[in-house]
Amino acid sequence: PREPLVLGIETSCDETGVGIVRGTTLLANVIASSMDEHARYGGVVPEIAARAHLEALTPTLKAALAEAQVDLHDLDAIAVTSGPGLSGALMVGVGAAKALAISLDKPLYAVNHLVGHVGADILSGDLSGQTRAGDSADTAFEYPTIALLVSGGHTSLLLVRDLVDDVELLGETIDDAAGEAFDKVARLLGLPYPGGPQIDAVAVNGDPNAIRFPRGLSLPKDMEKHRYDFSFSGLKTAVARWVEQCRDSGQEVPVADVAASFREAVADVLITKAVKACRELGVPRLLLGGGVVANARVRQLAEERCAAAGVALRIPPLSLCTDNGAMIAALGAQLVSAGRAPSGLGFGADSTLPV
Ligand code: KG4
Ligand code: ZN
C-alpha cells in the first residue's frame, strides 16, 4: 500500500513547526521561531510564544505545503503535539490542527513531543542537505534505542523499544533543563540569549579542567530508581558562587575557562548517564535530540564514549534535532501505518503529558 501522507504541527515552545512526510520520507520541514522576541527577557515568555504561534502558523503551513508540493486535500492524516510544553503555545497548534481536521475531514493524531523527537531519526530523503553524524551514519533506524533529549525545555532519557507503543521514560531533570542551564550561566557571564551557542563558542578558548564544577545528583542507595535523573540547578549555583567570589576578590572573571569547565560538566553528566543506560540495559544504540545537541563538546564526548562502549551513535541533522513539525508528522505516519485509531477531537493541550 501507498505510504501515508501526513502533516505535522509543532507549537510546544518557541518554534512554530509544520512538516510533511510520506511514510518515512521527509517532504517539507518549515520552522518559524520567536526566539528573538524572548531574547531581552533571557528566556521563553509563554504569552509571547503563544501569540507568535498564532501569527506564524498560517504562513508556516502555506510554506510547508509549497515546499512539499502537496494539496491539503491529499493528506491522509494530521498529527499535532498535544504536550508536554507550554499550555498556551500548545493550544494554538492543537486548535489549528482540529480546525484543519474538521474542515478537511481528515483523521487527527495527538502526539507526545518527546516521542516526536525520536521520530526525527526515522526520516530519510533529502534531509536539508545535511548528513547524519555518528558511527551508524548509513544504517537504518533500529529498536531498541536509548534516546537522550536535551533542549531548553527538557532533559529526558528514554528507552524506546517501539516508537508507536513502547517508550519508557528512564529519567529526566528534576530542576532545570540542560539548555536552560546553559542560558542561565551565559547570562551570569554577561553573554546574550540564547546562551548555549555563546558558551560553546567562548569555551573553545578555555581550559575545561580549570575549575572542577560538581557533576550533580549523587543519590543515596534507596534512590536507585532515580539513577537516570538529571539536576543542573546545583551546577548553575556552583558557577554563580565561583564567579561571585572571583568578582568579590577583585579578580577578572576568566570567562573562557568558566565556560569551558561548565560545558565539560554538563557534557560529562549527560553522556555518562546516557551511555550508562545503554550499558546497564544492554541497548547498543544511542540517539541524541534537542537543541543542546548542537554543542560541540556534547557531540564529541558522545562520539568518544559510544565508540569506547560499542554503542552506535545516531544524531539526526540539527534542523531535525531542534523542535520541528517533520518529526511530529513522522510519528503520525508511524501511527497511521500501525493501524492506530485517530485521537478524535476530544483531546486538549496537556503541558505535562507523560510519554
Ligand atoms: O531544541 P531547542 O532549539 O528549543 C527548545 O528548547 O525548545 O533548544 C534550545 C536550547 C537553548 O537553551 C539553547 O541555549 C541550547 O538549546 N543550545 C545550546 C547550543 N545551541 C543551542 N546549548 C549548548 N550548546 C550549543 N551549541
Ligand atoms: Zn523539544
UniProtKB/TrEMBL annotation:
<dbReference type="InterPro" id="IPR022450">
    <property type="entry name" value="TsaD"/>
</dbReference>
<feature type="binding site">
    <location>
        <position position="200"/>
    </location>
    <ligand>
        <name>substrate</name>
    </ligand>
</feature>
<keyword id="KW-0963">Cytoplasm</keyword>
<feature type="binding site">
    <location>
        <position position="113"/>
    </location>
    <ligand>
        <name>Fe cation</name>
    </ligand>
</feature>
<keyword id="KW-0808">Transferase</keyword>
<feature type="binding site">
    <location>
        <position position="323"/>
    </location>
    <ligand>
        <name>Fe cation</name>
    </ligand>
</feature>
<feature type="domain" description="Gcp-like">
    <location>
        <begin position="26"/>
        <end position="329"/>
    </location>
</feature>
<keyword id="KW-0479">Metal-binding</keyword>
<feature type="binding site">
    <location>
        <position position="295"/>
    </location>
    <ligand>
        <name>substrate</name>
    </ligand>
</feature>
<keyword id="KW-0819">tRNA processing</keyword>
<dbReference type="InterPro" id="IPR043129">
    <property type="entry name" value="ATPase_NBD"/>
</dbReference>
<keyword id="KW-0408">Iron</keyword>
<protein>
    <recommendedName>
        <fullName>tRNA N6-adenosine threonylcarbamoyltransferase</fullName>
        <ecNumber>2.3.1.234</ecNumber>
    </recommendedName>
</protein>
<dbReference type="GO" id="GO:0061711">
    <property type="term" value="F:tRNA N(6)-L-threonylcarbamoyladenine synthase activity"/>
</dbReference>
<dbReference type="Pfam" id="PF00814">
    <property type="entry name" value="TsaD"/>
</dbReference>
<feature type="binding site">
    <location>
        <begin position="149"/>
        <end position="153"/>
    </location>
    <ligand>
        <name>substrate</name>
    </ligand>
</feature>
<feature type="binding site">
    <location>
        <position position="196"/>
    </location>
    <ligand>
        <name>substrate</name>
    </ligand>
</feature>
<dbReference type="GO" id="GO:0002949">
    <property type="term" value="P:tRNA threonylcarbamoyladenosine modification"/>
</dbReference>
<dbReference type="InterPro" id="IPR017861">
    <property type="entry name" value="KAE1/TsaD"/>
</dbReference>
<dbReference type="InterPro" id="IPR000905">
    <property type="entry name" value="Gcp-like_dom"/>
</dbReference>
<comment type="similarity">
    <text>Belongs to the KAE1 / TsaD family.</text>
</comment>
<dbReference type="InterPro" id="IPR017860">
    <property type="entry name" value="Peptidase_M22_CS"/>
</dbReference>
<comment type="function">
    <text>Required for the formation of a threonylcarbamoyl group on adenosine at position 37 (t(6)A37) in tRNAs that read codons beginning with adenine. Is involved in the transfer of the threonylcarbamoyl moiety of threonylcarbamoyl-AMP (TC-AMP) to the N6 group of A37, together with TsaE and TsaB. TsaD likely plays a direct catalytic role in this reaction.</text>
</comment>
<keyword id="KW-0012">Acyltransferase</keyword>
<feature type="binding site">
    <location>
        <position position="183"/>
    </location>
    <ligand>
        <name>substrate</name>
    </ligand>
</feature>
<dbReference type="GO" id="GO:0005506">
    <property type="term" value="F:iron ion binding"/>
</dbReference>
<dbReference type="GO" id="GO:0005737">
    <property type="term" value="C:cytoplasm"/>
</dbReference>
<feature type="binding site">
    <location>
        <position position="117"/>
    </location>
    <ligand>
        <name>Fe cation</name>
    </ligand>
</feature>
